[in-house]
Amino acid sequence: MQIHLARNQVQAGPYTLTELNNMLATGQVELGDLMWHAGMEQWKPVGEMTQGQFHYNPNASVSPNTPPRRVSVAELYGKKEPESDLKQVIDLSKSTPASAHNKTLKAQPFNNTTDELATISNRVLAVIIDSLLLMACYLPFLSGLNYDFDKITATAGDMDKMTQLAQSVPEHLSSMSSLMFLALFAVQLVLLLRKGQTIGKLVTGIRI
Fold it and tell me: Which of 84, 123, 131, 202 has its C-alpha lying 20 to 30 A from 117's C-alpha?
C-alpha cells in the first residue's frame, strides 16, 4: 500500500503502512495531517482514518453514522406503501446536493518530486546551522579582544566592566559585527516572509 501525506499544502510520500505507523508513533505525522491512498475517494485527516489513534489499520471497519430510517404509519400497521412513494424515497436518498458535490476534493497522486516531511535530525541540523551563523557575527568583536574568554567571563554581572571591555574593542570591528547581525537578520526575515524558511531550513530543505 502506497500512502501519501500532506501538510500546509506540501505533499510527501508515498510511504508504506509500516513507515506511516512509525512516523505516527514518533510524532512526525500529526492527526491533523491529510492522507490518501488507493481506494479512498478524497483526502481525509489522519485522525479520522485512525479513529483518533496513533496507529493506522486500513482493514479496521468504520461504521458510518447512518440515521435511522423513518417508519411510516402504513408500515407500522402492516400496510404496504404505494410503489411510487417508495421510489421517491429511494431517489431522494441517492441524491447529493450540488454544493456538497462541488466541495468534494478528488484525490490526486503525489508528485514524486515533492518534499518529504522533515526528520528530527534535519530539524536539529537546521537549528545548528542558524546558531553557527549567529555565532559567526561575534567573530570580529571577539577578535578585538584576542578571543580572551577569561576576561569576558570576569566581567559577567558588572555593567561598568562590560562597558569598558566593549569600548576597548576597535570601532571598525564593533561596526563589522553590528553590520553582520543586521545582514543576517534581514536575510532571515526575507526568507521567513517569502518562503517560510530560515537559512538553516533552506539548506536542509525544510519548510514551515
Answer: 131
CA distance 187 to 131: 14
Domain total in the chain: 2
From CA 43, how far away is CA 35, in angstroms rounded? 6
Q: How confident is the model at residue 106 (pLDDT cuts 50, 70, 90)?
A: very low
CA angle 168, 172, 175 (to 5 degrees): 95
Phi-psi category of 207—alpha, beta or left, where left has phi over 0 and alpha has psi -120 to 50? beta
Dihedral, CA atoms, 170, 174, 176, 180, nearest 10 degrees? 160
Residue 144 lies in a domain: yes
> Given a cut of 70, is residue 31 above it in pLDDT?
yes
108-151 per-position pLDDT tens digit: 444 444 445 678 888 899 899 999 999 888 888 888 877 777 77
Q: Is 58 a member of any domain?
A: no
| Residues contacting residue 202 through CB under 8 Å, at least 6 positions apart | 191, 195
What gap in Å lies between CA 118 and CA 127, rounded to an integer? 13
Helix axes 171-195, 120-136, angle to 10 degrees: 150
Residue 26 lies in a domain: yes
Element of type H or E holding 3: strand 3-7
Domain of residue 126 covers 120-204
